Amino acid sequence: MKNAIYTTTLLLLSLTAGAQDWPNIKRYEEANKAVKSPAKGEKRVVYMGDSITDFWINNDSTFFKSNNYYDRGISGQTTGQMLLRFREDVINLKPAVVVILAGINDIAENNGPSKLEDVAGNIFSMAELAKANNIKVVISSVLPAAAFPWRPAINPVEKVKTLNEMLLNYAKKNNMVYLDYFTAMADNKRALPLALSKDGVHPNLEGYKMMEPLAKRAIAQALQKK
Prior knowledge:
By secondary structure, the chain is of the alpha/beta class. It has a single domain, classed as 3-Layer(aba) Sandwich (Rossmann fold). Helix 10 links the parallel strand 4 and strand 5. The chain has a 5-stranded parallel beta sheet with strand order 2-1-3-4-5, with helices on both faces. The chain has 12 helices and 5 strands. This is SGNH/GDSL hydrolase family protein. GO terms for molecular function: hydrolase activity.
């Protein structure tokens, strides 16, 4: 609890320190206002992430509508930006479960170089904020990627592997669900194959269709955890 309070204090200080909406809190501001308190027995789920989550609802909106899922992905975001908007886009919606999928844009250095320990730490902080607010946590693996079209000089393969190991170990240690997209989707070069993606980073509809049953199974597991 103390760690969560400390993290929340840091978030507030960070928000008041900058004049611009770096975490893009306004993206879902109006949509969040329209969300009502959960009905009795409702098992609301929020997906927090970057473009992979952001594009998911456009590729398969039925998946979200039919399962009472809320998509709160923002394209291009790093884990630090997600952490800053976590209260507005997750906690305040009062979900039963949050599915966190983050880290690939940090590896791509979208906001500059980052240590993997800091990237993982941002994800851990989101998980701890959720836990402090009685929200079950699903920590997703980073999807496979062998190259970035917008950062061709970066080879992400080993960093994706290392970050996923850190996330898996944290989930095990803290009795949280680890959602392993990587193993299901990676080819023998640890890349996202063209059958599942046009650019090797973002899933196409076939890729999302592969992810969906894995996500639903992980959510069910999270709901069963004490």
